[in-house]
Fold these 2 entries.
Entry 1:
Amino acid sequence: MSELIAAEHAGRVIDGLRTIVGAPNLFAGADIEDRYRVDVMQKHHARPLAVVRPADTTQVVEIIKIAARAAVPVTPLGGRTGVVGGGVCRDGGIVLSLERMNRVLEVDDSSMTMTVEAGVPLQQAQEVAEAHGFILPLDLGARGSATIGGNIATNAGGVRVLRWGMTRDMVLGLEAVLANGAVVSSLSKSLKDNAGYHWKDLLIGSEGTLGVVTRAVLRLRPLPASTQTALLALGGFESVPALLRRLEGRFAGQLSSFELMWQDFYDYVTAAQLNTRRPPLPPGSPLYALVETLGSDPVRDLELFQEGLHEAGEAGLIEDAVIAQTARERGNLWAVRDDLTEPFKPLFPLAAFDVSLALKDMPAFVRDSRAAVLALYPSSTILYYGHAGDGNLHVAVALDRSGPDAETKVETAVYGCIRQYGGSISAEHGVGTAKRTYIGYTRSKTELALMRSIKQALDPDNIMNPGKVLPDRD
Ligand code: MLT
Ligand code: ZN
């Protein structure tokens, strides 16, 4: 296509999009803000043709039809909290931001469900649920800006998966727009529905590559009446499996979080937060666990919590513990695990990992991956933490700035260890562009071929968020 024809073509696409959403909701050229050009990790950049902000599903359909006719790719965008580049479009592509589709449509008290548009921020959905006496159990550090649509597109996990599962486990019904402009909708409110293939589960976690999530019915639970939170210092990983099993058993269904922080992480983060808060437990222990139960009776639950932790201490599984007495103290305990934006700033550029593996393999993985990174860059800062109760570890490695290939070398080393232990390169963040070259470390050729045939069936012209999840053809 000559430059002139290409410009005319682009101009027609932009005009068509403007007609659909109106001038205030269409940005092109120099009007496109930086937040649509680069991801939150400052790693993935793009020059979009246009950014569109539809008001409803009908407008999404019209946008997809224009994009399909013009063969321009579309990248759906939620709250911009993804860390794998999944929301960054290809140069010349359309960014379809769901930010205006931000209505909670219904809370159905008797079905214990909530129906929302995709652009509702997670925290807003949590607060509306709470006002109706329910909990929407999905929870993660980025709750303030992450949207339900983004959570669904990435099958987000977070800090309560141990008890209530991933986003997938909370989505009862879904509406989405496919690459051909069809609206698939099953806004079911039932837990059970075995009528054929579950297309909803294909869309969940597909990172915008199979369609645009526009609405969802979410499962709610009665709001717990009590929260118990403790930070525990542990003598070593040997006690972790027994401690987790004991607490899950003793707290009988109430244990909602079991987060682990290795010493490097705890010492680093508490030191970085010293100007705002004192470390809840002294630094220097090999491991720290943040545990939380959500229950129904504040007095009885606290007694049970204290008893359970005391018995675990007697059994030699805990070295030291602090139990939050107030909501403020609880916030301070969680801040060590959750409030990472400022503490992590000096570590940039950062390689951030989100892997999963069997609990029993975690100490060997930590040992081997640390050794592999240090063999490459002996003075690296490497921090291990994560949702150990879910088999999910995060690793943050401050990258050596001396060479351009430090990130690739560190990734190859860490993912190499994950492959050795039969784990996954992505526990909860997804694949995006950042991990797609490593997906073969976790998925077999047969699995990848199956994924390609699903993609081909639903999006034969590769309009929907191309370049994400699957590697380019070999
Ligand atoms: C978390 O658990 O805090 C988030 O998944 C983000 C991360 O640490 O990588
Ligand atoms: Zn996480």
Note: The chain has four domains: 7-100, 104-222, 226-338, 348-432.
Entry 2:
Amino acid sequence: MDLYEIPAWRIAQGVISGDLRAVDVLESCLERLDSLEGYIRACLDVYVDEALEEAERVDRLSQEGHHPGPLAGVPVLLKDNICVKGRRTTCGSRMLEGWISPYDATMVNLLRQAGAVVVGKTNMDEFAMGSSTENSAFFPTSNPHDLARVPGGSSGGSAAAVAAGYVPLALGSDTGGSIRQPAAFCGIHGLKPTYGMVSRYGLVAFASSLDQIGPMARDMGDLALCMDVIGQRDPMDATSRSFEGPRFIDVIRNDSLKGLRVGILRGFDEGRVDQELTMVSLMASRFCLDAGAAVSDVKLPVSMGAGLASYYIIAPAEASSNLARFDGVRFGPSVTGDTLGETYQMVRSQGFGPEVKRRIMMGTYALSSGYYDEYYGRAQRVREAIREEFRQVFRSVDLLICPPSPCLPFLKGEMAEDPVRMYLTDAFTLPANLAGVPALTVYAGRSRTGLPLAVQLMAPWGEDRRLVMAGAVLERAFGAPSVVG
Ligand code: GLN
């Protein structure tokens, strides 16, 4: 096994015990990145020198007998909407091209304190709006399993980088599925934690009531290890809170699901879902049964029905407000019109791509007086009904299984001209964001044509540990992802 293939938890163990050097691991990862990046194009920035310095520092600490932290020497990549001080943060947008972040996101501080080595930034759909990474203003990223296909999105760069073995672990953000769907498309695991479990300080906001940062990895143990580091209350994010419990890394050792009630989602438009994806969901429920769980059918008619429409009002409404700050005064291309209004217009016309403009217009319309109640108000009432539906369902089951997406990774360009078709692919992931509950996608082998398959698990609010524990059981059953390419 090459060093770049080793899971994060084993890297950390090796670096802590002195059997491995962080610098060797990093060099192996950088070589891997160098040899494939021309094809995959997952990264927007790579910090070679600074990363080598960080790795050397970790090795020194370890040699001097200090504990370098639970992620000692683990190379990580960050989605480019997470701020690293003194570095570019573009959000995949021309609007922020050349903008240098003046501070570190809480994620960066926590990862570095834990001994991780921040290697750089990954490509994404502009301002995280999209499901294919084709909305990046810079270039599209390719799926390492098939370069003609999309890696999913919006955290497509992070997913592709982990799948291809650039790094064992990356962070993404998930507003309606952007961690889980690209993880599924690239054949790795991805977790969207409970809203509030991970700090959003230093994450450029898309839709603040839905956004959540989370880990993406090829190994369930790595997701667990990362959650133990990043799942902290942060005084800098008033919506974050602490969720007491055992360490994630201890919970996943459990291989029995005895006493757990697992619901398999039924009654959605099954005909529209890829048959192999439906099949692996059934297989997953069978594996849960074998591990001692009780399995039954459940339905979420509101979430799987009106959820999509509600999300595509609420997310754009919040985005239209969050993105109002990009007006050319502090951020954006330096163009000046004859009047202030004209300057705003020029900056926003040039700085934003078509999908972001579409969202801002939808959101502004939904919030405008006369339409507010009809659109935004109604979408909020649907959201409340979805929360209630989840509360009800989680009275009778402890975990839920459903497909992560209706389709396998699609071809580049296949949906780019049809935004509504692209939105429809988010139907299974966005309910968890609307309800605030945690959700995980787990790699589930390959399709007949060799593309990755995955299943999605959801758990009640705050029960992320249970989710990752079940994820580890499924990982053992389906087999762990390996590096591709
Ligand atoms: N694909 C969804 C959207 O375009 C979700 C994006 C996300 O989670 N950031 O809004």
Note: The mean pLDDT is 97.
